Every structure is written in structure tokens, then in C-alpha cells.
Amino acid sequence: MSVLYIALPVAILLALAAVIAFVWTVSRGQYDDLDTPALRMLEDDERRRPRHRPASRDETSPREETDHPHNSREQ
């Protein structure tokens, strides 16, 4: 019987915390749009973000020999 003095208030506090958390999420708009996130995964990523195109060899500037320490003629 004495366990009820501990278990009942703990159960009531947990239920109250769950109700408060639910009310808080509803008031913040957490459940406003449930369909769009599920459909967003079906969209192509290429439409939202442009793909990075690597530069071709013609577009890159040629490096001089002195750019690299192992190619420098100074010893």
C-alpha cells in the first residue's frame, strides 16, 4: 500500500509532463504540415541545388615551374 504513495504521484507527474509537451508542440506549429516533409524526399536534389561542375583542363591556368618547391631552380 505504501508503494502507491510514490507510484501515483510519479504517474500523475509523467502524464502532466506529456500533456504539457503536447500542448507546447501544438502551439509551436509542429503538426501544421504533415504532408510536405513526406513528399520532399521524392523531389530530385538536382533541381534544388546546382551541381558543381569541375573545371576542365582548358579553363585552369597553367602553373609556372616556380609554383612548386621541388621544381624551383634555386638551391
The multimeric state of the shown protein is single chain
Q: Whole-number radius of gyration?
A: 32 Å
Helical content band: 40-55%
Number of strands: 0
Rounded average pLDDT: 78
**Structural class, please?**
mainly alpha
Q: What is the rounded distance between the termini?
A: 92 Å
Count of helix runs: 3
Spell out the helices and strands N to C. HHH
The residue ranges in which pLDDT falls below 50 over 5 or more consecutive positions are none
Q: Approximately what portion of the residues adopt beta-strand conformation? A: under 5%
Task: Describe it.
With 75 residues, this protein is mostly helical. It is built from 3 helices and no strands. It starts with a helix and ends in a 27-residue tail after the last helix.
Write a brief structural summary.
The chain has 75 residues and is an all-alpha fold. It contains 3 helices and no strands.
List the topology elements.
Elements (H helix, E strand, L loop, with lengths): L3 H24 L8 H5 L4 H4 L27
Features:
single chain; 75 residues; mainly alpha
